[in-house]
Amino acid sequence: MSACFFSMSSLGPPPQGRQGGWSSVQSCRATIGCVVLAVALGAGPAWAAFPQIRLETVSSGELVTPVGLTNAGDGSNRLFTVDQRGKIQIIQNGSVLPTPFLDLGSDLVPARPNFDERGLLGLAFHPQYGVPNSPGEGKFYVFYSATSPNAPGTTTDPVNCRSTVAEYRVSPGNPNVADPASRRILLSFDKPQFNHNGGELAFGPDGYLYLGTGDGGGSNDNDPGHTGGGTAKPSGGLGNAQDRSRFMGKILRIDVNGNNSSNGQYGIPADNPFVGQPGSLPEIYAYGMRNPWRFSFDTGPGGTGRLFTADVGQGKYEEINIVTNGGNYGWRNREGLHAFDPTAPAPDVPPTDPIFEYAHPGQGGGTVPEIGVSISGGFVYRGNAFPELQGKYIFGDWSTAFAPGDGTLLGLEETPGGWQYTQLDVEGGNPIGLYITSFGRDEAGELYVVAKSVLGPGPDPLSGLPTGVIFKIVPIPEPATGMLLCVLMAGSLAHRRMRAGAEGGAP
């Protein structure tokens, strides 16, 4: 039943592409007033469809290649953007400040001009960033692709770049500029190819820093530099993602306030699942990832604390996982729910199924939704502007093809029968005609879409101008007629209840 208490089937079938859900425009677009009135009158809980949304432009033509957005959690309400080519910039009071918060461009591996997955990829602020005299005061963390002194490596063990996680501090006298001299490298490792870097950083509810790493790149997790791989790309190899002696293809968890790691720069949480196990890195929290591109914790009022991770597929399937301590998420034995290399060694920890998968165009076989070619993880909504989005997971697909950019905004809702997906109803259309690179969240829990219009990591090759765009997801005001209809319906329900009570009968 819809939130306005009549059958959605009476309105006819949902439009093409809106599988698993329906725009709230077609299903009365229940407003919070309608829901609150009905519940107050004893109508009981009601399912609310995904509402229609509007993408409100926050920044356009100012950012070159934005791949992330976050907040400092310090009460300043600033937004911090992550540019793939090294700049962290601040959006304050709706404007991008002219001076970068930090510029790591000179520390990055040189970019490939037409397409690259390396660069500055992750940013997370210490949970105590804004707490005076605390261990985390003024500290933040970045994940980037640096030049490795071991490059280019050898034919059998190539080195393309070095994945690096570092700590920085804000400048003592200026909250809008970081101190570049404060860098402390926590963790770094070489990887064999330019792609599949992962790069997400996020602090969990437990106060530990989680970081996602890709399987090292190439394809199939069986190129040179991948366990059991080689130039002939043999079948039957273990792969980096299943090899617990390697950092690649994992979700790692570390204590930035500790020092009991092998290099003394961070701590190892005692309940990490493979602590003390020979042949396994103690930093590993979960494994079997191909390229986890954006994960987030369900935090905020009503949050479950669960860790939602998007894992980019090889050539057919994209997936969303809820990641738990010690979990194995299947790659390279399988892609999504489907066998990938049946000859690979059987995993000693049975893989955990994704909560949702979709296929690339032409690959679904009529049984799996066909959406796009690369998943971008998002957030469970816990803000206040959108009551109809509460508890729903908002994410997207990068593009329906490599070119032109045409990303799709998506939603997942947990129901008693499992997770159901919706292609969001976006004012102006969905797909949105841009590459969707990431999502962000502000201090109030409201969500943002990070996008760009060119494939490469730089500005538009013809105009030389930046093409990055930041959108805020905002509600569309309910027409007065819609609110009046909901009020009239709620009033009719109240009248029926009062009449039934007077006559001693049931409503």
Short description:
The protein has 507 residues and is mainly beta.
Topology:
Blueprint: H1 32-40, E1 53-60, E2 66-71, E3 79-83, E4 87-92, E5 95-96, E6 102-103, E7 120-125, E8 139-146, E9 161-171, E10 174-191, E11 201-203, E12 209-212, E13 250-254, E14 284-287, E15 292-297, E16 307-311, E17 317-323, E18 334-335, E19 338-339, E20 356-359, E21 375-380, E22 393-397, E23 408-415, E24 418-423, E25 435-441, E26 447-452, E27 469-475, H2 480-503
Antiparallel strand pairs: 1-27, 2-3, 3-4, 4-5, 4-6, 7-8, 8-9, 9-10, 11-12, 12-13, 13-14, 15-16, 16-17, 17-20, 18-19, 21-22, 22-23, 23-24, 25-26, 26-27
Number of helices: 2
Which CATH C-level class is it? Mainly Beta
Distance separating the two termini: 18 Å
Could you give a short account of the major beta sheet?
5 strands, antiparallel
Question: What's the number of domains?
Answer: 1
List the secondary-structure elements in sequence, H or E: HEEEEEEEEEEEEEEEEEEEEEEEEEEEH
Beta content: 25-35%
Low-confidence stretches: 1-47, 481-487, 493-507
CATH topology: Neuraminidase
Strand runs, count: 27
If you average the pLDDT, what whole number results? Answer: 88
Shape estimate: globular
Features of this protein?
single chain, mainly beta, four-stranded antiparallel beta sheet, 27 strands, Neuraminidase, disordered N terminus, five-stranded antiparallel beta sheet, 507 residues
